[in-house]
Amino acid sequence: MFYPFAKTIYEIRKLSDFDQYINYLANDYNYAKRRFKKTFGYDLNLRKPKTFNEKIQYLKLHYRKPILTRLADKYTVRSFVKKRIGAKYLNTCLGVYSSVLEINPSTLPSQFVLKATHGSSWNIICSNKDQLDWGETIKTLKSWLKQNYFKLGREWCYKNIPPQIICEKYLGPNLPDYKFFCFHGKPYYIQVDLDRFGSHKRNFYNLRWEKLTIRLIYPNSNKDIKKPKKLTEMITVAQKLSKDFPFVRIDLYEHENSIIFGEMTFYPENGFGTFRPQKYDYQFGTLLKL
């Protein structure tokens, strides 16, 4: 198929079918409307949005403060975190690279994590450097550095982030990921993700660590997930980082009796996450005042 408006051969190769091509050509508003209808089966209401997902779409289109670019960037967000809550919450940064040619594997420890600073879920977790396929790793990193993540899902905060790779300390296998849903500077819900790169499970809790009957895309885990030892401090950290924003999800880890900052997420699931029961889409939405 001929794609006359794709800017490069590389971009054309990324458009695997006609549906993706139409999304590529659509402007942000039309893309949101089209994908929302396809996902949820009803029209997106941006004049009077009610659900959480509708309001996330509204924020993507209308809440475009430059600071969001800085905070969505996996590298530049570190200076914001350091200033607001302190450097002790940051994971160790082992390097930042604008080109794969800058990466010297011999200088890296036996375990590490490589992340694209300008995207989401673009991670390579290395638990044993000797077993890592560097040829495939370099190929993947080059692919990420050529892409503008914004074009894949129209998430505005990624649009102007310069592509880089950050290398961070490896924190361990299957570390629970605690994600705090914060509305107007106040945390309300905690999403916990387990085994993200395997049999992904996801639970929700309130701030009292009471499990909620919420399913968001992934199935719930039947495991008895213990309350984090540092939960009270985690809530305080999430509150401080989310101050001044209508909504942001603050992602944290608990590692060796310390809290480690993960990232700030402004559009969970890109505003296309299906809640079960659906009432929670509306319940979360009532907390977000536009």
Percent range of helical residues = 25-40%
CATH topology of the domain at 66-73 and 172-287: D-amino Acid Aminotransferase, Chain A, domain 1
General form: globular
Which series of helices and strands comes N to C? HHHHHHEEEHHEEEEEEHEEEH
Instruction: Give the uncertain stretches in residue-range form.
Output: 1-15
* Continuous helix count: 10
CATH-level-2 architecture of the domain at 66-73 and 172-287: 2-Layer Sandwich
Structural class: alpha+beta
| CA-atom Rg in angstroms | 19 Å
| Widest beta sheet: strand line-up | 8-7-6-5-10-11
Counting DSSP E segments of at least 2 residues, the number of strands comes to 12
* Gap from first CA to last CA: 42 Å
Mean pLDDT: 91
Q: Specify the CATH class of the domain at 66-73 and 172-287.
A: Alpha Beta
Strand content: 15-25%
Major pleated sheet: 6 strands, antiparallel
Helices, strands, pairings?
Layout: H1 9-14, H2 18-25, H3 28-40, H4 52-62, H5 66-72, H6 77-84, E1 93-97, E2 112-116, E3 123-126, H7 134-146, H8 150-153, E4 165-168, E5 177-183, E6 186-194, E7 201-206, E8 211-212, E9 215-216, H9 231-242, E10 247-255, E11 258-265, E12 275-276, H10 279-287
Antiparallel strand pairs: 1-4, 2-3, 2-4, 5-6, 5-10, 6-7, 7-8, 9-12, 10-11
Helix pairs in contact: 4-10
Can you offer a commentary on this structure?
The longest helix has 13 residues, at 28-40. The strands form three sheets. A six-stranded antiparallel sheet has the order 8-7-6-5-10-11. Strands 1-4-2-3 form a four-stranded antiparallel sheet, covered by helices on one side. Residues 1-15 have low confidence and may be disordered. The chain is globular and about 55 Å long. Among the domains are: 66-73 and 172-287, D-amino Acid Aminotransferase, Chain A, domain 1; 92-168, no CATH class. The protein is α+β, with helices and mostly antiparallel strands and 290 residues long. It has helices at 9-14, 18-25, 28-40, 52-62, 66-72, 77-84, 134-146, 150-153, 231-242, 279-287; strands spanning 93-97, 112-116, 123-126, 165-168, 177-183, 186-194, 201-206, 211-212, 215-216, 247-255, 258-265, 275-276. It contains ten helices and twelve strands. Helices cover 31% and strands 22% of the residues.
